[in-house]
Every structure is written in structure tokens, then in C-alpha cells.
Design a protein that fits this description.
The chain is α/β, with parallel strands linked by helices. It is built from nine helices and 15 strands.
């Protein structure tokens, strides 16, 4: 369903603009006045910067033809008494970023096709792009542009979802606590893909356990988790989740135990307990690797079947990303 200005006003519990303006349809969400391409159908979100009010950017967007704005205060351009185009409308909200996220979340609710939510300390964009290459022949895919995985990038990515698609590949990244729950509400993934835990943004968390817990918040709605498990603190998915892990350790020696988690409704196992692979937990064991033909051969075991694959990269980071993609396809 396309969103008219009337629908958008309802979503934010604001007065609707008068007709015929209320029937104008918004097709594009814009947060950077330099990136206006379709001004007549764009809604500009005047997000504040580190040193400037978001309303400071309204004039530039207006000059480029934008007429619909989301602001947290009446901008100067509307206070100067200069005549504005009749079609100009300002939605005044307490929090412009929250308004952007709420609108994207409402848009997300219109679609029931699979959404793969990708997060982790590194490899998010690479895994997303590789999965796109692997799946594009069989699916009509919408995916996050470039590395659009922030508090702004995720809602802009979700807004691209359309009825013509039947699969979404979306990535999410955070740098501190309190961020992922907001992105989870916008994205609502049906499958979660975790690319691994590393030192990136350590300053924003008290511990690796806290960082993992925060990142896994993205998967609150996901019924399937794909997890690069090597080096992770203990964790437990909620009851009913199909868990797929890969790692250099055997599944039977890989601890998948409890951290105190707001997303887990199941009774957690004892800290440090061992959970072998079960019908709800399948493990891809990375047995060994060797250089071969400019890349490397990875020897693997899955469901008691041993096999090997060749990847055209010699580094371990690429091998890890390839295994995450492989396990997603399995």
C-alpha cells in the first residue's frame, strides 16, 4: 500500500493536511538534502546533526523541489514570511529519527515474504552481497544498499521493500547498547544471520557477553538462526528456534548455554552445559583447510556427511564469510 500524507499523519497521530494535499503519495524517504532525486514524491526527514539543527537543512531540500517535511520544530524558512508553495507541509514531531523508524516499521508490516536479518562485528555487507549473488537467480531480492545498517540506514533499506520482491537481505549494525531493539522493530527478520563477534565497537559495551546479547536482539522475531559460533560467549536462542551453527569445534563440544537475555523465554540450561546437535540445532563442522589453486579447500562435516568445497579466496575472513553463506543455504 502506498502511503499518502493522510496515512502518514495517522501513523504519527498528527492532524492530516487538507485535501487535496492529503492524497499526495510519498514514494521516497530522504535524509540528505544533497540526495534528492524525485522531489515531488519525497518526504524529507530533517535529522539533527552534531552541530546543526535538522531544520537547518530544510531550505536546501525545499530549493531542490521537496515539499513534504518531518521536523522537530517549525523551520526558519516557514517563519520568514516568504510565500511557500501551496503543497508545502511540515509534520512536526518530537523525535524525527523515531518518526522515520516508526514509518519504516509500518511499511515492513505489509509484507510476509522472508526477511534475512544480518548482523555481527564484521562481514555483514560481504555476506549480504554474496547471498545476493547466490540467490538472485531464484528470488526477486531487495537488499540494503551498500552498508546501510545504521539507525538511519535500516529504515531506508526497509522502505525499499515492495510487493514485486519475494526475499529481503537486510543488515544491521550497532555501536552501543539500546540500539538493536529499535532496528529489530523496524526490520522484523524471519531469519537471523550472525557473522561473528569481534573487537569492533568494544567501547560501547561492558563485555563481549553484553555485546552478543545486544546484537542477538535483532533476531527476536526470527524462527531460524544461522550463527558463526567460534569464539562466542555462551548463548541460548528462545524456545522454538531452529539453530544452525558452524565452527572449528565439534557440535558436541560447543557450548550453547545461557546468558541472561530479554529475548529468551525458555528456561535456560545451566551455565557451561553442553548441548549436542539435535533436530533443533544443526552444526557445520569446519574440519580443515588447505591452499589450492589460488584459493582454499575447506573440509566440512554436516549431519554426519563429510565433504569439501573450494573458495576462490586464500584468507580466513573470506572462508568464514563463505561458510556463513553456505550454512544459510543449507
Amino acid at each position: 500500500m502506498p502511503f499518502s500524507l493522510h496515512h502518514i499523519a495517522q501513523a504519527w497521530d498528527l492532524p492530516a493536511p487538507p485535501p487535496p494535499l492529503a492524497d499526495q503519495v510519498v514514494a521516497h524517504l530522504v535524509t540528505d538534502s544533497r540526495q534528492v532525486v524525485f522531489p515531488a514524491s519525497s518526504l524529507f526527514f530533517a535529522l539533527p546533526g552534531p552541530r546543526r539543527s535538522g531544520s537547518d537543512f530544510v531550505a536546501a531540500a525545499y530549493q531542490r523541489g521537496v515539499r513534504f517535511f518531518v521536523v522537530d520544530e517549525v523551520p526558519t524558512i516557514a517563519q520568514q514570511g516568504e510565500p511557500l508553495a501551496w503543497s508545502t507541509h511540515f509534520f512536526v514531531v518530537p523525535d524525527v529519527l523515531k518518526a522515520l523508524q516508526d514509518l519504516a516499521a509500518l511499511h515492513r508490516q505489509q509484507f510476509d515474504y522472508p526477511v534475512l536479518g544480518i548482523t555481527g562485528s564484521n562481514g555483514k555487507t560481504m555476506v549480504k552481497e554474496w547471498l545476493y549473488q547466490l540467490l538472485q537467480a531464484d528470488y526477486r531480492i531487495v537488499r540494503s544498499p551498500r552498508s546501510y545498517n545504521s539507525q538511519i540506514g535500516v529504515p531506508l533499506s526497509v522502505w525499499q521493500m515492495d510487493a514485486q520482491h519475494n526475499l529481503a537481505l537486510l543488515e544491521a549494525g550497532i555501536s552501543q547498547t539500546g540500539e538493536m531493539q529499535k532496528l529489530a522493530q523496524v526490520m522484523a527478520p524471519t531469519m537471523g544471520i550472525f557473522t561473528g563477534l569481534g573487537p569492533a565497537h568494544d567501547a560501547g559495551f561492558n563485555s563481549s557477553e553484553q555485546k552478543l546479547k545486544e546484537k542477538l536482539q535483532l533476531f527476536a522475531t526470527a524462527k531460524t538462526w544461522v550463527v558463526a559460533a567460534d569464539g562466542l560467549p555462551d548463548f541460548a536462542p528462545p524456545a522454538g528456534v531452529q539453530l544452525f551453527t558452524w565452527g572449528k569445534a565439534e557440535a558436541s563440544s560447543k557450548t550453547v548455554a545461557s546468558i541472561v537475555s530479554t529475548i529468551s523465554s525458555s528456561t535456560p540450561p545451566t551455565q557451561g552445559s553442553i548441548l549436542p546437535a539435535t533436530p533443533s540445532h544443526q552444526h557445520l563442522h569446519w574440519l580443515s583447510s588447505r591452499a589450492l589453486d589460488g584459493g582454499q579447500e575447506l573440509v566440512l562435516r554436516f549431519q554426519e556427511n563429510e565433504f569439501s568445497i573450494w573458495v576462490p579466496f586464500a584468507d580466513e575472513v573470506s572462508a568464514r564469510n563463505a561458510l556463513t553463506c553456505l550454512l544459510t543455504l543449507l
